[in-house]
Design goal:
- InterPro entries: TPR-like_helical_dom_sf (IPR011990), TPR_rpt (IPR019734).
- Keywords: Repeat, TPR repeat.
- Helices cover 77% and strands 3% of the residues.
- It has 605 residues and is an all-alpha fold.
- It has a two-stranded antiparallel sheet with strand order 1-2.
- The protein is elongated.
Length: 605
């Protein structure tokens, strides 16, 4: 009767003699069930030492696996080219799994070099080398090289394999990933569907390989803004993995992370952070503390904190990610751009506009070097530079970058993608600032139309559209309509956001301005005080938004003839603006004029 064991320890006790400590495994062990099929396919036609090393790698006992492979390397003569290639490829896979991508690339290139020098080289081993280099180039952020190597892999496989070979499904999947990274979504989808079609003919519906393709198709649909389809694919993949994988399998971490992204996009932040933390918990058990996979979780958790207005927590998460990425990647890796971009957003939200712009420019520099000119990530960076330029009062620069954003998005995203809605919103902001209210209203309504078609009815970003439409109606003296839209915005925010979220403060502020416009100063003041209470809790002491609320509060007190109170608030508006804006900024000049007016009234009194 056969017995199956876990390996608990492996050590060399003398030259050429190794001691292996074993622990008996139960027949219903989940890892055992998963491994039986996997190991059978991956370790055929190799001797016991190779099988043992492969087993150690699959069990994530990477140090032990590397020890065995290095022993085998030392024993092999240079004439054993196929075995040397096999070991270098396996060492590359281990380094890939542990996040040491540069060392992985070095091993893969050694394998490829041996193959090219061999007189009677193996097309099969050559295709493996090309595939592995392609995958590691994608991890390193060089998507064009990744695509080139995967095309080489496909060219070889199409010559030596049948059209329905499962190995072709893997190559189609990898071509899908490379195209997706380059923003070529339609091409990526074609390759994923080719991969899926082969698997449907060769595998049972619950096979683990389906989970890989479902996950990739889910991620692709998320990037395309098709959230319902994305969630359907991801949940299909999750159900397969829960049945076949161990509880701490890294693929489960990926699936939980991707489901979290969908919930975040749909505005369900509590569900999102729950899935991100599930993912991080698995990664912390599976990977080393400096593995890039942990950085992804820190970024995603940081983004939810940011959306909830919890800015210190967001910065902390982003800085953890950045620390890992700077050690793991080259200075132009696209993932570094993501973290720089997110740090820019938080600093912008805290009112540190020069710091925000600096981080955005770092992100743009990387993305212009590593991505094609119509990649969605470039649109994101253009948008953010436009936004911070607008906040700094440079409307011409802002308009230039928003137009760049729109041009890229219209080429690479569908007409109802949520990102395009945000861009119409931002173009509306600029037109409103320039006094073109009808143009602004048209752009805001386009933004709202897209959001209604692509998001749930209570998604938090709908409140942004309602608020902005309210602002334009107010500027056009349509106060009843303005109040209606502001209240719609507040209603959505109170259902989905913490009560002290900055967006809630904005709605109170906007409602206050309408009441002030129709001379209902006491009601206006009540709303301003609600807004101020939230902003003082969530924003930095010198945030420009605080200056605006102090200015408006001062105005309400002024018309209520409470001049001393008005003076206190207007002085705060001037002090904050002096710290946070340029000396010639129009807002600062306006606040100074208001202060002089209040002082004049006090002198008369």
């Amino acid at each position: 009767m056969h017995s199956i064991f876990h390996i608990t320890e492996i050590k060399q006790i003398e030259n050429q003699v190794w001691q292996i400590t074993l622990k008996l495994t139960k027949i219903d062990d989940k890892q055992l069930i998963y491994l039986k099929e996997l190991i059978h396919g991956k370790t055929q036609n190799v001797n016991q030492w190779y099988r043992l090393a492969k087993l150690m790698a699959v069990l994530r006992e990477f140090d032990h696996a590397k020890e065995i492979y290095h022993v085998l390397l030392n024993l092999l003569p240079t004439t054993e080219s196929s075995k040397l290639c096999y070991i270098y490829n396996e060492l590359g896979i281990i380094c890939d799994e542990t996040g040491d991508y540069r060392l992985a690339l070095s091993f893969y290139q050694k394998a490829l070099e041996i193959q090219r020098k061999t007189t009677h080289f193996s097309h099969h081993l050559l295709s493996i080398a090309y595939n592995n280099i392609g995958e590691i180039q994608r991890e390193l952020g060089d998507y064009f090289k990744a695509l080139s190597y995967h095309k080489k892999t496909l060219s070889i496989k199409q010559k030596i394999l049948s059209p329905h070979d499962l190995s072709l499904a893997t190559t189609y999947n990898n071509l899908g990933l490379a195209n997706q990274s380059l923003g070529e979504f339609a091409t990526a989808l074609e390759f994923y569907e080719k991969s899926l079609n082969i698997k449907r003919k060769a595998l049972s519906p619950a096979h683990i390989d389906f989970a890989v393709t479902y996950n990739n198709m889910g991620e692709l649909h998320r990037e395309m803004g098709k959230y319902a389809a994305a969630l359907k694919y991801l949940e299909k993949g999750l159900q397969i993995r829960l049945k076949t994988c161990s509880p701490n399998d890294s693929s489960l971490a990926i699936t939980y992370n991707n489901i979290g992204l969908i919930h975040r996009e749909q505005g369900d932040y509590n569900q999102a952070i729950s899935y991100f933390r599930k993912s991080l918990e698995i990664k912390e058990k599976t990977y080393t503390s400096n593995h890039p996979a942990l950085a992804i979780s820190y970024i995603n958790i940081g983004e939810v904190h940011q959306l909830l207005g919890e800015f210190p927590e967001a910065i902390s998460s982003y800085e953890k990610a950045l620390e890992i990425q700077e050690k793991a990647y080259s200075i132009n890796h696209p993932d570094l751009a993501i973290t720089y971009n997110n740090l820019g957003i938080v600093h912008q939200l805290l009112g540190n506009y020069p710091s925000g712009l600096s981080f955005y420019q770092k992100a743009l520099k990387i993305r212009q070097k590593s991505l094609p000119p119509n990649h969605p990530a470039l649109a994101t960076t253009y948008n953010n530079i436009g936004h911070v330029s607008q906040l700094m009062g440079d409307n011409n620069v802002a308009l230039e970058y928003y137009q760049k954003t729109k041009n890229v998005q219209e080429k690479c995203l569908g007409p109802y993608h949520p990102s395009l809605a945000a861009t119409f919103n931002n173009l509306g902001d600029i037109q409103r600032t320039l006094g073109n209210h009808k143009k602004a209203l048209g752009l805001y309504e386009k933004s709202l139309e897209i959001k209604k078609k692509s998001l749930s009815p209570n998604h938090p970003t709908l409140s942004v559209a309602y608020n902005n439409i309210g602002v334009v109606h107010q500027a056009m003296q349509k106060h009843a309509l303005a109040l209606e839209y502001y209240k719609k915005a507040l209603e959505i925010q109170q259902k989905n956001l913490p009560l002290d979220h900055p967006d809630v403060a904005l709605s109170y502020y906007n409602i206050g301005t309408v009441h002030q416009s129709i001379k209902q100063y006491s009601i206006a003041l009540d709303n301003y005080e609600k807004a101020l209470k939230i902003q003082e809790k969530t924003l930095s002491p010198n945030h420009p938004d605080l200056a605006h609320i102090h200015n408006s509060t001062a105005t309400a007190y002024f018309y209520l003839e409470k001049y001393q109170k008005a003076l206190e608030h207007e002085q705060r508006a001037v002090d904050i603006s002096t710290q946070s804006l340029s000396p010639d900024h129009p807002h600062l000049q306006t606040f100074k004029l208001h202060l002089q007016r209040i002082q004049s009234e006090l002198e008369v009194k």
